[in-house]
Specification:
The chain is α+β, with helices and mostly antiparallel strands and 285 residues long. The chain folds into two domains: 130 residues, Diaminopimelate Epimerase, Chain A, domain 1 (Roll), CATH 3.10.310.10; 140 residues, Diaminopimelate Epimerase, Chain A, domain 1 (Roll), CATH 3.10.310.10. It is built from five helices and 18 strands. Strands 6, 7, 8, 9, 10, 11, 12, 13, 14, 15, 16 and 17 form a twelve-stranded mixed beta sheet that branches. The longest helix has 13 residues.
């Protein structure tokens, strides 16, 4: 039996927990999710991927944030889980579908040697009620809000989950750490939001810093890359094919009409079992 597997996508690390392989009955509540993800008291990760949950020949899984909440979608999480179901023989084709809280995503394995995986991330929308955002506008593009006593221009998009994007001449980790948590929990976002700070390098390249909802400062994020790219594209800063540079590495985003495609590598780290004393904490209600 194996209790957990660990993978990462450009430094964005996830623990995969397969309910069919657990050696005990895991209580997957908020407290236990936080404990497993804790980098001192647990295994340590940016989240948990729980699955596969197979019903009617459909493979679904849950994306759980380290604060105990459930995410609708994660570009890195999806690619990691795609590699897991390939590794464990749940799928044998190079093209298949997975299901998250946000619905179906299409998977294509581009290169098995480098674990390069392409995901159809679905359609994007800047419509305020679809994100959702409490602002008096239809599309949330170049909207002004007050932040720390100053006016800031924001853009917001839904790509299966909500994102707030600020385009800057220069970005930094310090900027993400300062403004990220404030924007994540801002009153205009009823479901909170992911936050990206974007620096446009040229028509084919952007750089981003990421504050992830429920996880905090993050080295890489697939949905963040897509959200940032869609925003820069709609505002005519970039073309429809773009390389996104993050602290953890690079991914490639292609925008065709309203649909967004994400391509990037993922890597295996380890697999293991929970110690008996740790399991005792996880089976308590």
């Amino acid at each position: 039996m194996v209790d957990f597997y660990k993978y990462h996508g450009l430094g964005n690390d996830y623990i995969v927990i397969d309910p069919a392989k657990l050696s005990f009955d895991l209580v997957l509540n908020e407290e236990n999710i936080k404990l497993i993800c804790h980098r001192n008291f647990g295994i340590g990760s940016d989240g948990i991927l729980f699955g596969p949950i197979i019903k009617d020949n459909k493979i679904s899984f849950k994306i759980l944030n380290p604060d105990g909440s459930e995410a609708e979608k994660s570009g890195n999480g999806i690619r990691i889980f795609a590699l897991y179901v390939i590794d464990e023989g749940y799928v044998t084709s190079d093209k298949f579908d997975l299901y998250t809280k946000a619905g179906k995503v299409k998977i294509e394995v581009i290169d098995k040697n480098t674990n390069l995986i392409k995901v159809s991330m679905g359609q994007y929308s800047f419509i305020n009620h679809k994100i959702p955002v409490k602002l008096d506008c239809t599309e949330v593009l170049n909207q002004e809000i007050e932040l720390l006593g100053k006016k800031k221009i924001i853009n917001c998009v839904n790509i299966g989950n909500p994102h707030c994007i600020l385009i800057k001449d220069k970005i930094s980790k310090d900027l993400a750490l300062k403004l990220g948590p404030i924007l994540e929990n801002h009153a205009i976002f009823p479901n909170k939001t992911n936050v990206q700070f974007v620096e446009v390098l040229d028509r084919s390249n952007i750089k981003i810093e990421i504050w992830e909802r429920g996880a905090g400062y993050t080295l890489a994020s697939g949905t963040s890359s897509c959200a940032a790219s869609c925003t820069a594209y709609i505002l005519d800063f970039i073309d429809n094919n773009v390389t996104v540079e993050m602290r953890g590495g690079k991914v490639f985003v292609e925008i065709i009409g309203q649909e967004v495609f994400l391509t990037g590598e993922v890597s295996r780290i380890s697999k293991g079992v929970f110690a008996g004393e740790f399991i005792k904490k996880l089976v308590k209600y």
